[in-house]
């Protein structure tokens, strides 16, 4: 049990179906003084430390690698991974794409996608407000140029992604930037499975408004512009545009 946890129910569980050996090793990692990038003991030493067979340790390490907790460096050993949101990407992409399937009655349940949109909207609204006033006129022009590229359906997705990356390039929060990328992948792949819609002009206008707002000095105006930029996809997912 992790130091400071007095009750077994307080133990942090990585996954419901995680191998008990991997769960035990995870608890040890959390309670240790190791930091991302540090090596962990070799397999034989871990087997001795935990009183496990080497095969059990090997399987635990494999599971923790799959979850992004550990990484193997060829010829060097096993290390704690550096922090990254990339490991949650497959699960969210899967959730996004498969949520656009029909149930046994032929109806679509898009609740999961709507929830994903609102989580991304909340995150981006906060960041849009944060960067307001720090975006230079030159970056503003770059954002408008990216918005203009959204007029071309063949280039729209690439331009949209670059718009949001450019907008938050100066944000000193790597996790937030990674999460936005993960949400973008998930929603973009799901979008390909939704009925087509003619929102090209609305998409460009929404991004142009964001670009105008973040160059200004009113964070609340930027927050509002970002919130409503999600209205088109909200409508496609069967929800009315929401009020902040």
UniProtKB/TrEMBL annotation:
Pfam families: FCD, GntR. It comes from Cutibacterium avidum ATCC 25577. Keywords: DNA-binding, Transcription, Transcription regulation. The keyword DNA-binding applies. InterPro entries: GntR_C (IPR011711), TF_FadR/GntR_C (IPR008920), Tscrpt_reg_HTH_GntR (IPR000524), WH-like_DNA-bd_sf (IPR036388), WH_DNA-bd_sf (IPR036390). CDD domains: WHTH_GntR. GO terms for molecular function: DNA binding; DNA-binding transcription factor activity. This is GntR family transcriptional regulator. The lineage of its organism: Bacteria, Bacillati, Actinomycetota, Actinomycetes, Propionibacteriales. It comes from the Bacteria. The keyword DNA-binding applies.
